[in-house]
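Hi L.,

You mentioned the student needs an example of a multi-chain input paired with its predicted structure. This one should do, with 676 residues in total across all chains.
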Amino acid sequence: MKLYEYQAKEILKKYKVPVPAGAVAETVDEVRSATAKIGKTVVLKGQVHSGGRGKAGAVKLAKTSDEAAAIAHDLLGKTLFFAQANANLKVNKLLVEEALAIKHEIYIAITQDRTTQRDILIVSTKGGMDIEAVAEESPEAISKTPIDPLLGLTDYTARNALFAAGYDKTLIAKTVPVLKALYAAYIGSDAILAEINPLVITDDGAVIAGDAKWLIDDNALYRQIDLQSFGDSSEDDPIEAEAHRRGIQYVRLEGGNIGIIGNGAGLVMTTMDEVKRAGGAPADFLDIGGGAKAESVRNSLEIVLSDPNVKGVLFNIFGGITRGDEVANGIIEGLAALDVKVPIVVRLAGTRAAEGAAILKQTNLVPAETMQEAAEKIVALALKN
Amino acid sequence: MSILIDKSTKVIVQGITGNAGIFHTTLMLDYGTLVVGGVSPGKGGQKVIDGRVPIFDTVEEAKKATGATATCIFVPARFAADAVLEAADAGIDLIVCITEGIPGHDELVFANVVRQKGARLVGPNCPGLLTVGQANIGIIPDNIFIPGPIGVVSRSGTLTYESVDALTRAGLGQTTCVGIGGDPFIGTRFIDVLPLFEADPETKAVVMCGEVGGSDEEIAAEYIKTMTKPVIGFIAGLTAPPGKRMGHAGAIISGTSGTPQAKVDALKAAGVAVAESPSQIPGLVKLALGL
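Structure written out for the whole complex:
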């Protein structure tokens, strides 16, 4: 789950990472009063799920309440193009913050590294820049330090990470507690990415989080009760948002014509690839998961058919923990509840596949023996129509 | 011969009294797997599956009473991390975790604990493993296998079934099939399984199915260069767009890392015959074995 900057800063504040004085505002009046309360030059930042907001024109400075109100009047409700997200996003909220007197900017982040099977602390002395650009241009300015999950982030590990990035030695004592607080926030919120860029060292020597990017592990949301309300799918594809509301793993694919429903991520991806090989274009990735019940199969069919580009649907189920008869019952329920106008090819194999095939015999669905055969059949049927 | 498990491997099942636990333990027993007990806290002393499997309250008790060396975990996601830690603490050698949807932070902790204890974790979010004609730990449907010389290892459960099914239809039997799981943090990776197949005298060739995300396939490719046995590969997700998580938490192309083409190239450079579709796998195996 992606968070907005203001939400990430609420987490940071809770874990005692210093953040600028500020408030989130949804109206011009709220922006005006927030600016007045801060009482000095403010920065107004559009809250969208994308980086590169400055370049997109979503970050502005204002010296007075009137100036802030004028900017808010222009920005609130405006849709801007964000190159980093490659999307037009609407600015619904502004974060109003005191403008910092910046002396240095650094980059700090914690994320999971699969290869070392560790959380990894990334420090770059070139803050405020895209980390991937820094990695290419000046890799010596970046340190990557694995964190032992059983020990957590120790003081010396945090220090070593700063030394390794060539950090100003006089600032290390002041920065280590910030790194440790960031780690506590990362673990405490079940984040898979916690990034502060820039971490600002101000003219008077304070260390403050200028901007923050945060991703929460969806698998851990059940125990992050306070964060559940932070989810905002308004920027997502509407069919994807609906699928997620129903607990279905669905990704919509651009330019597709064949709806795909399968069990298991690898098999669904392979089914997509087979459809492409057969001359079609996959319209989605939909994994009904392991042990799916009839109801979620019915829901899945409804989600896939709600995409008007779908000219045919391919079910590819290889049962292990999923039972063929259960899937077949779900398909029957779906056919009864929905007005299905496109051809459907069903390939059932594995656990209780024969029982499933028997249930589907009464329908006009097209059976297939193998995945390849199923892909060829659905592409032929869909493109004929 | 086989790898990791055989007909003498004593197995317990954690979370045996749930629906999936009962259903799949029954199938495991029917296949001949030596399931010697189950663990379900609070239900110790009972017996399930027509009185064939005794239940214990703790893994420690179950291990003491039965001598089990392996466990199969069907515990729901929010309790699964604890189940893995309990098994590792009780000294179980092989911990197979079927459960999907476990928080990443928990996986990092238990993957490291299991390693420190010297045990082996397969999964989580995996279908388990099966040695043909001997033992099945997990949820892999056994009726698609026939005995033969091919070892199979795969990140995706159902894609494993697909590949095995294709081999069997072509008359190519298998030794052991290992589903290593689709999460970013798994206990056993390609690089851990390939040396076992290399050392197993009955395995003559290996089929390895990877997918987008991470770099485990690339790491495995380096090892494959040193293998004497042929490896046939398949990578799922050639049509997967970057930045979108394809179901498996681990299946995401981020930046330039984890692209399917990079994996295909790395495998080909290591001398692996890479199939474009699972249906091509049997042909490539036959070619590699000179059949």
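You could point out the following to them. Chain B is about 35% helix and 25% strand. Chain B has a mean pLDDT of 94.

Best wishes,
N.
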